[in-house]
Amino acid sequence: MGHHEHSLAIFRGRLKFKSIEQKIWGVFTFLSIITIVEVIFGIIKPESLMVPFMSAFEGGFMATMANIFLSPFIFMKPLNLIFIVLTIVKAYYITWDFMHMRDETKALRRMVVWTAIFLICYLVLILLVEGDYIFEVYKSNYIKFDF
Amino acid sequence: METTVATTASKGGVWGGGNQPLRASYGKMMMWFFIVSDALTFSGFLAAYGFSRFKFVDAWPIADEVFTHFPFLHGVPAPMFYVAFMTFILIFSSVTMVLAVDAGHKMKQSKVAIYMFLTIIGGAIFVGSQAWEWATFIKGDYGAVETKGGKILQFLDTEGDRVAIGSFAQSIPGSSVEHHASNGVWFMSGNKQTSYNFEEVKAGFLANENLLIRTQYLDEKGHPTVLSREASIEKIKKDGKLVVEGANLKRNEYGHPLFADFFFFITGFHGFHVFSGVLINIIIFFNVVIGTYERRKSYEMVEKVGLYWHFVDLVWVFVFTFFYLV
Questions:
Q1: Any chain B CB within 8 A of the CB of A24?
Q2: Tens digits of residue pLDDT in A59-104
Q3: Contact B324 A42 (CB under 8 A)
Q4: Which domains does chain B have, with CATH numbers?
Q5: How confident is the model over B111-140, as pLDDT tens digits?
């Protein structure tokens, strides 16, 4: 095994730590702040963040394309979007600094991260689209509720 | 990494297995691949949760109204606080774990032991908290009535506050449905199926003018729909079928039964991971204490179990978001 050093910087080198212990406590502080922000938002649920930023485009092909590309802003509550982004940020720092992914080779990093991200996005997309379809079917038909 | 694990890597040339393009030992790489596959298992569960939630998106329970309890604070609504506490416990035990890994790199045996010990304690607190969360969820809160179609009706007073069925149900002697062991162990104590049966709740509801029914359907603002008094009376007379107290795999007083199913399944599977993580940590802890890794001149085992432990934390971050926040 090669003798490689730990990277001591986070935020793309903007924040450098003197030792690995300091970096661990720094990342812990950052993760704690994110969690506190999430909890505060989860309790307050500001009204302004409960309705989507934009409404769906109507019209032809371009409107459909715009609806697909801007779907997080059209079909999601901004609050949920914020939660999901913050979760991914937290996941990044847990993986990169606690699991030392930052210090692994590029090939290992891509093998683990890209594989998982691709398969998860694929699965989530299919299941959520299908779930929404069934919801629409229920809405217009009379079917026993919990089969 | 300052240390080398010589036992697993063969010393051949490039074609004899001596080439290590990933510069990771066999054990660590396999732990990463296990983590990828386990991550896909968990995303399968969470995506299935999303699928079911999208199916019933206008009638899904609001997590804030389900998980409102905090130990020793009876009757004080504290949504989110307990899960937030659990999240901190798990992140903190991740910190002690990564400090143990770092101490291992520096070959400091006693420091590794102390940090491993703290990690085990954190894991134990988390598993205990989850058990408490389950117990509270299973026990239930206000109780509800289930309709013939399997929907849940909850009770409110005219101010819009939830009302427990026990506070208004009228006792009708001799009407309670007896519970037999052949019907399973849904209710463990007493010989009645629920503390009040449907007829008793119905009688109490009709006698009490200021009670309203709340359905599980959400309005445009995302709040459950509250029926008028007349509509409430009609609903309970026409559709009411049985009383539900608490949650299990079949019935759920908080709303859709699938919510309870996924809660038990996902947090249960995660809790099982934490539990096995604690066991593995204990084994590694004793190995550290008796000096196994000191003799091996490498603390890589601590690093590998650390990867698993951080992964458990990582999964919780997602469960926290998709079960409690979103």
A1: yes
A2: 889 998 998 889 889 888 999 999 999 999 999 999 999 999 999 9
A3: yes
A4: 48-139+258-325 (1.20.120.80), 144-245 (no CATH)
A5: 999 999 999 999 999 999 999 999 999 998
